[in-house]
TrEMBL record:
Highest taxon of source: Bacteria
Species of origin: Kibdelosporangium aridum
Transmembrane feature ranges: 41-58, 70-90, 102-123
Keyword set, alphabetical order: Membrane, Transmembrane, Transmembrane helix
Stated name of the protein: Uncharacterized protein
Presence of keyword Membrane: yes
Record bears the keyword Membrane: yes
Amino acid sequence: MLIAVTVAMAAFAWHDPVVAVFGAAPVLVWCLGMARTEQAGLVYGVILVALAAWILLPRDLGLSGNWVPSVFEVCLFLPVVSALICALGLRAQRSGGCAGAVGLAALIVVGFLMAGSTVLDYAEGYTRNEGVWPGPSGLRVVEREAGCGSGGCTRTMEATGDRAAERMRDYLDSRGFTAPGYNKEWTCRIDGLLLEYKVCAGIKEISPTTVQVSWLI
């Protein structure tokens, strides 16, 4: 049950794949490799699921803000906190769980490496899909050539279809782009308690059926 709930949350948050994987991994490691007794397995499993929900559900529901952990914090802090929770669970069970411990250790190492890579990309302005691409279903979307400069790279796509601009605004809103941007055409998604991650997107209506969307970090 805990695995099914976690996988479902991760699936709905897959537009942010790094967060989805790291959010779900501790629950899977605990349930499949470390839980030995029914009572302790359930108690500590629920704690890990609650932690995963704090990370994944806001992304599932299109929420953002400084109360939502950023990708930096998910990669850096979640594996460490999860390892501590699992260590307490193992102590409560009075069991080793070597395979699970190896899995958590690997998760911590990969988390630090991924956090470092993400920080470098963010500092250099390397813009990924960021929950914007490929846009809402039902629109014909074509990506244009990215524009790169000293401040980083801005990606652009054009979407065509009925009520394209309105549907694109609704789509971005569902991805957490709710903070004011550089002007009325731009909106931003800002996450992070301590380590902020910000991505902004601008919508330019070209015609009633065509809209151009640009986004950057």
